[in-house]
């Protein structure tokens, strides 16, 4: 009984067409990406080491801080829902009064306990800042590697990072930056899309909970709980994506062992 040999893993292999170059194999078929034969790129080696260092920091510490920030923010948001609802009701009355040229109602006083202030400014906000810095630092370095490997490079690394802070553009520019960390046929693109949907759902749920608090505090707190669960799932998926991206970039790099093999073709191509 004959068995079908396994397909070779994704990576650069000598071109089966006979060109003096490496051709990218995506684990199913040959693609159009080519790289000339030659010694390993020293600049690429530096970029890969820099990306790996940023990835380890993000996975080891950044995601932990991200989780703490998410949990702490959800707790504070749940506690302050009554105040949020009061502010929204006042804003609606103030808008109506302005339209009818009436005097504005008195704005409600926000009385926030000191422990909430300490929790936000000692734990939640610093965790958010450090996690975001580590995340953007990794994205920038990974984009530099992808551009050097010829996997993507659009948009430029700096613009991809800055895109998170540009209104309207932040709805699509960061997604494009992450999609171009891998080849167009990479299976990792579906994971990136899934994480993007999770991020959109988390942001929408948080805003929806604030609006829902005007009519139902219980419903708003349930929605915040769902939002928290979605965000924690997203952090777990992000961790697996980061590890897979590291493997994909290493596989896309011509190595001395491959150079020494000569122009051989992997089986079942």
Structure, explained:
The protein is 64% helix and 6% strand. The chain has 269 residues and is mostly helical. The chain has one domain (54-251). A three-stranded antiparallel beta sheet has the order 1-2-3. Helix 1 runs antiparallel to helix 3 (114-149), helix 2 (81-99) crosses helix 6 (188-212) and helix 6 (188-212) runs antiparallel to helix 7.
Notable characteristics:
3 strands, elongated, 269 residues, disordered C terminus, mainly alpha, three-stranded antiparallel β-sheet, single chain
Query: What count of structural domains?
Result: 1
In terms of per-residue confidence, which ranges show pLDDT below 50 for 5 or more consecutive residues? 256-269
Shape: elongated
Please work out how many helical segments DSSP would assign.
8
Round the mean pLDDT to the nearest integer and report it: 86
DSSP summary, beta strand count = 3
Largest sheet: 3 strands, antiparallel
CA-based gyration radius:
25 Å
Question: What is the beta-strand fraction?
Answer: 5-15%
Strand order of the largest sheet: 1-2-3
Task: Give me a quick take on this structure.
By secondary structure, the chain is mainly alpha-helical. It contains eight helices and three strands; from the N terminus they run E-E-E-H-H-H-H-H-H-H-H.
Describe the SSE topology.
Elements: E1 11-14, E2 21-25, E3 30-36, H1 42-79, H2 81-99, H3 114-149, H4 157-162, H5 173-179, H6 188-212, H7 217-251, H8 256-261
Antiparallel strand pairs: 1-2, 2-3
Helix pairs in contact: 1-3, 1-7, 2-6, 6-7
């Amino acid at each position: 009984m004959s068995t079908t040999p396994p397909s070779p893993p994704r990576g650069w292999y000598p071109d089966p067409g006979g060109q003096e170059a490496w051709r990218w194999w995506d684990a199913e078929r040959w693609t159009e990406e080519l790289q000339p034969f030659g010694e390993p790129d020293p600049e690429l080696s530096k970029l890969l080491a820099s990306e790996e260092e940023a990835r380890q920091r993000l996975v080891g510490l950044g995601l932990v801080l991200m989780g703490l920030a998410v949990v702490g923010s959800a707790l504070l948001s749940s506690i302050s829902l009554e105040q949020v609802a009061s502010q929204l009701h006042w804003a609606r009355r103030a808008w109506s009064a302005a339209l009818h040229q009436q005097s504005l109602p008195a704005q409600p006083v926000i009385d926030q306990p000191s422990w909430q202030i300490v929790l936000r400014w000692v734990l939640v906000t610093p965790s958010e800042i450090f996690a975001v810095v580590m995340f953007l630092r990794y994205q920038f370095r990974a984009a530099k590697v992808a551009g050097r490997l010829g996997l993507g490079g659009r948009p430029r690394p700096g613009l991809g990072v800055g895109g998170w802070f540009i209104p309207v553009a932040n709805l699509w520019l960061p997604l494009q930056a992450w999609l171009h960390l891998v080849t167009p046929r990479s299976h990792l693109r579906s994971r990136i899309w899934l994480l993007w949907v999770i991020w959109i759902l988390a942001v929408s749920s948080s805003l929806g909970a604030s609006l829902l608090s005007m009519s139902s505090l219980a419903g708003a707190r349930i929605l915040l709980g769902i939002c928290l669960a979605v965000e924690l799932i997203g952090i777990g998926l992000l961790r697996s994506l980061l590890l897979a991206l590291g493997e994909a970039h290493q596989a896309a790099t011509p190595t001395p062992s491959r150079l020494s093999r000569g122009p051989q073709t992997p089986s079942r191509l």
